[in-house]
């Protein structure tokens, strides 16, 4: 897990609010506001001097890291719930189509308030794409870090300050390993895979599929041209997470997107119903 994966102590997360690229070019300055937040209580990475801890100490450290993260995630979850904000942690390997999916989702669900937190090791490219849709977005650059964590999420929420009732998408760093272990305070994790990646993704990355509440299989318009068995992929996903929903779709053609939107709407209804029940119980 993360205490041995190599994402480093010395990597500080940088949270950026993208600005209009044309204005930046016009006056010769880069106005993207940046906030450095030192992250990762991990004893690893470039500054760790390759210290090899005994196995028992490594496990203890990993548990402490996750315990601290989970505590912060619960605070994020409460903050979001108090504002009726529904957050989804979007995970995938690089190139599966998360950003393109979000661009189309934002445009087609535009009547709802939507905001995005973008996670990448470097650049603001994805945040600029999201901003072009008219959606509010902040970029979190993790440096050497291979995932977002709850503290980065907290700082991003502070910067973004999403309005009550917002549908919030968190596009995690492209990685199917560590994001499975780090709760951000989201409603659900959504794992996006594509038919160009291979049928056996659920077997190779079981922790990610166990943690996810939904699997989206993107680029099904390419099925005639690639070696991908959709039925077997469903079976593999069910073998590591019985009952998990799998939605095949194509962001390019739009096929299957209505099921994705229906799933989001159902999650919104369920969350609001649970909130009303909780409020009635307190009364």
What does it look like?
This protein is an alpha/beta fold and 283 residues long. The protein has a single domain, classed as 3-Layer(aba) Sandwich (Rossmann fold), CATH 3.40.50. It is 39% helix and 19% strand. Strands 2-1-5-4-6-3-7-8-9 form a 9-stranded mixed β-sheet, sandwiched between helices. Helix 4 links the parallel strand 4 and strand 5. It is globular and about 50 Å long. The termini are far apart.
Per CATH, the class reads Alpha Beta
Q: What sort of overall outline do the alpha carbons produce when their principal axes are compared?
A: globular
Helix content: 25-40%
What is the arithmetic mean of pLDDT?
A: 86
Number of strands: 9
Written as H for each helix and E for each strand, in order along the chain, the element string is EHEHEHEHEHEEHHEHEH
Q: Short description, anyone?
A:
The protein is an alpha/beta fold and 283 residues long. The protein is built from nine helices and nine strands. It has a single domain (66-282), classed as P-loop containing nucleotide triphosphate hydrolases (Rossmann fold), CATH 3.40.50.300.
Q: Can you lay out the helices and strands and say which pair or pack?
A:
Blueprint: E1 12-17, H1 21-27, E2 33-38, H2 55-82, E3 86-92, H3 98-108, E4 114-120, H4 125-131, E5 136-141, H5 150-160, E6 167-171, E7 188-194, H6 201-204, H7 206-211, E8 214-218, H8 230-240, E9 245-248, H9 257-282
Parallel strand pairs: 3-6, 3-7, 4-5, 4-6, 7-8, 8-9
Antiparallel strand pairs: 1-2, 1-5
Helix pairs in contact: 2-5
């Amino acid at each position: 897990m993360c205490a041995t994966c190599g994402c480093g102590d010395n990597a500080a997360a940088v949270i950026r609010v993208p600005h209009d690229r044309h204005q930046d070019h016009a006056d010769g300055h880069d106005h993207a506001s940046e906030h450095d937040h030192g992250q990762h209580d991990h004893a690893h990475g470039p500054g760790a001097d390759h210290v090899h801890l005994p196995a028992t100490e490594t496990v203890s450290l990993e548990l402490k890291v996750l315990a601290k993260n989970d505590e912060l995630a619960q605070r994020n979850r409460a903050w979001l719930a108090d504002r009726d904000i529904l957050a989804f942690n979007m995970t995938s390997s690089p190139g599966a189509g998360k950003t393109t999916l979000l661009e189309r989702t934002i445009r087609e669900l535009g009547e709802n308030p939507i905001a995005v937190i973008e996670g990448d090791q470097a650049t603001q490219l994805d945040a600029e794409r999201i901003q072009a849709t008219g959606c509010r977005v902040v970029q979190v650059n993790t440096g050497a870090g291979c995932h977002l964590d709850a503290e980065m999420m907290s700082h991003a929420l502070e910067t973004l300050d999403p309005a009550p009732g917002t549908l919030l998408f968190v596009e995690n760093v492209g990685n199917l390993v560590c994001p499975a272990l780090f709760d951000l305070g989201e409603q659900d994790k959504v794992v996006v895979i594509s038919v160009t990646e291979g049928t056996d993704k659920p077997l190779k990355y079981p922790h990610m599929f166990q943690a996810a509440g939904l699997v989206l299989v993107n680029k099904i318009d390419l099925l005639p041209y690639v070696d991908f068995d959709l039925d077997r992929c469903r079976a593999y996903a069910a073998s590591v997470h019985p009952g998990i929903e799998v939605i095949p779709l194509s962001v390019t053609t739009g096929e299957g997107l209505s099921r994705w939107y229906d799933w989001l709407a159902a999650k919104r209804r369920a969350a609001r119903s649970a909130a009303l029940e909780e409020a009635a119980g307190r009364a």
